[in-house]
Every structure is written in C-alpha cells, then in structure tokens.
UniProtKB/TrEMBL annotation:
Start and end residues of each Thioredoxin domain: 221-361
Location(s) in or outside the cell: Cell envelope
Gene3D superfamilies registered for this protein in UniProt: Glutaredoxin
Name of this protein: Peroxiredoxin
Domain of life: Bacteria
Organism: Seonamhaeicola aphaedonensis
Gene Ontology biological process terms from the UniProt entry: cytochrome complex assembly
Keywords: Coiled coil, Cytochrome c-type biogenesis, Disulfide bond, Redox-active center
Keyword Coiled coil carried by entry: yes
Length: 361
C-alpha cells in the first residue's frame, strides 16, 4: 500500500512539473561547448528577427533563457558578433540545446514537438537540398542564368514536398509557416487549396490572416496585363508612385538587402541603367526589407541610382502581394502603354531585350 501511494505521489509531482513547464513558459537549457565564459548569447523571436528578444551569458559552457509564449514561434540563437547561430522552434516546454563553438547551426534541439515536425520535413527535402548545393557550387558568370532556371524548378519541387507535409500535418505551426513563406511563389489559386488543409486555429493566427489576405488580393499579374500602380515610401520617407516615374520602358525590380542573388545581379543592372536611362529606360525598385537602415546601406553600397521604395513589411509588401511575387529576385518589364511585356528577365536576356528595344530600332 505504501508503495502504491509513493508511486501515485511521484506521478502527481512529475505531472505538476510538466504542467508548470507548459503553463509557466519555456526554459532553454543551453550547452555551448568550447565557448568562453562571459560570452553573450542572443535570442531572437520571429517575426521580429531584427530585435533582440533576450540575452544572457555563457558560464561554464552553459546558458539559460526563460520566458513565455502565447504560441510556438521560430526562435534564433546567436553568439554575439559572430555568425554562430541556430534557428529552431520554441514553445512553452523545457528545450535542451547542445552546440559547439563555430557549429551552432548543427546543434541539437530537444523538447519541442514542432521542432520534431520541422526536422521531419527537412529529412523529406534532404535530397533536393543536396542538389541545390551542387548547383550553387557550379555557378559562374557564364552559366548563371541557365543554372538559375534549374534552381527555380527545384524550388517548385521543394514546394510540392512542403504541400504534402502540410496535408499530413494540418495542426503544425511548421505547416503554417511553410505556406506563408511559399504563398507568393505558388499564387493565390494554389495557396487557397493548400490553406484549406490547415486547422481553424492556425487559420485564425496572424500568419493565417496574412495568407487569407493574399488569397483575396493577389492578382497574379502576367505578361499582357496592364500594370497596377505602386505607391510606397522612398528612402527619404517621401511617398512615390510608379506612374510618376514611368518612362518608355520601366523595370519593376523586387529585391531586398538580405537577398544574395538579388545583390549579385545589381552590378549588371547598374551598367544597363547607365546605358539606357537617357533613351527612356527606367528602373523602379521595390524592397522586401523590414530594416530601413540595412535597406539604405544596400542601396548606397550597390550604387542603385534609381527610385527605390518599400513599405518595410518584408514578404508581405503590398506591391509584392499585388504582383504575385513568388520569390526574389523577381521583376517585370512594362512598355510605354503600361503593359507587362516580360517577367523574370535578367542577365543576358535583359541585355538582349534592351538592345532590341533601344539599339535595333
């Protein structure tokens, strides 16, 4: 009898501890191997990835964070003044992290059910990621355009894997996040179908409402359609309209300071702009940034001397939603009548098109 009572008491204690963890918030127990004492560790929470949510110090290769979340969120751990980081799902549970100095990215996370689901999805996409890495390693100036097209097709395969996962895991915040990130690439019609898989709780979240708004507002503009005017603030804070700067031919360029491929194409755009701006060619940049200072610095560093605007809403930029921007870099070329005559045109293809429009007449 005494044994039975002891077992019951232990069960109650364990259960109450578990409930305390769940109701009392999250606890991150971190082990940072080979990291010196007093090294600062930063914690970021999506979507406010530019804001430090919390910070702490390493003591005896250990660190700890405590807090409370209303729902699971993607979190980001980073050693200060380094690129040593780890992105993972954080929820109101005890989360254990083990990572080595210089290799936080491959650190192990335990305790989060959403993280387990995320890792399952990554396993499904492992082969496609390896192929993408091979392509990136082969990129040169000569083959960049052709490899970029192959890369685009592989991204479509990745999205199909995501969509199957969403169908299999309709209650997972990982499913919600993947759909929110890929909605522009899929377009409103397909997004609407995949969105129907999610449960009602996920649909009522901030991201769920953003997806619903995208489905309602996205026009999936294509070649032959008339352009829709864009009005957003430039780096001086002045509201600027596309229609006010539109010339004979205008390239609407969707990009961001954090987008490596976008930045790699900028030198070519700068040269093409110099060659044809006096002949009636204009560029209207639309940034998917959220940090104004990083956006301004990128414009200055890359020498982008054309009009650049942004609403600083990131992937939810209203112009990007309207134009059905699926991924960046993306662009559209419009003629003197305001009709879209080309899309996703860059590199040699853009050079040949501009020559045809301005030099061969």
């Amino acid at each position: 009898m005494k044994y039975i009572i002891t077992v019951i008491l232990l069960t109650i204690i364990i259960s109450s501890c578990h409930n305390k963890s769940k109701n009392g918030g999250y606890l991150i127990n971190g082990i940072a191997e080979n990291v010196s004492d007093s090294t600062k560790v930063l914690l970021y929470l999506y979507p406010k990835i530019d804001e430090i949510a919390d910070s702490t110090f390493v003591i005896n290769e250990e660190f700890q964070f405590k807090g409370n979340l209303s729902r699971p969120r993607l979190a980001h751990l980073r050693i200060i003044e380094s690129r040593d980081d780890k992105t993972f799902w954080l929820e109101n549970q005890q989360i254990d992290f083990i990572g080595k100095k210089g290799n936080f990215f491959n650190g192990r996370i335990k305790g989060s059910e959403t993280q387990k689901e995320s890792e399952l999805l990554l396993k499904r996409k492992d082969s496609i990621f390896k192929e993408m890495e091979k392509l990136e390693a082969k990129v040169t100036e000569k083959n960049r355009d052709s490899l970029f097209e192959i890369y685009e097709k592989m991204q479509d395969v990745e999205i199909e894997i995501n969509n199957k996962f969403i169908q299999d895991y309709p209650n997972s915040y990982e499913s919600l996040t993947r759909l929110n990130w890929s909605k522009e690439r899929m377009g409103s019609e397909k997004t609407s179908i995949v969105f129907s898989y999610l449960n009602s709780e996920l649909k009522s979240t901030e991201e769920g409402k953003a997806i619903e708004e995208f489905i309602s507002n996205n026009r999936n503009l294509k070649i032959g359609d008339k352009f829709v005017d864009i009005e957003q603030a430039n780096i001086k804070g002045e509201m600027t309209k596309l229609s006010k700067i539109h010339k004979n031919y205008t390239l609407i360029e969707f990009w961001a300071s954090w987008c490596g491929p976008c930045r790699s194409f900028n030198p070519e755009l700068v040269e093409q702009y110099k060659l044809y701006k006096d002949k009636g060619f204009e560029i209207f940049g639309v940034s998917l940034d959220t940090d104004k200072e990083k956006w301004k610095k990128a414009i200055k560093k890359d020498g982008l001397n054309w009009e650049n605007v942004s609403d600083l809403k990131g992937a939810n930029n209203q112009a990007a939603v309207t134009y059905g921007v699926r991924d960046i870099p993306d662009n559209l070329l419009i003629n003197e009548k305001g009709v879209i005559i080309a899309r996703l045109i860059r590199g040699q293809k853009l050079e040949e098109k501009l020559k045809e429009l301005f030099d061969d007449k």
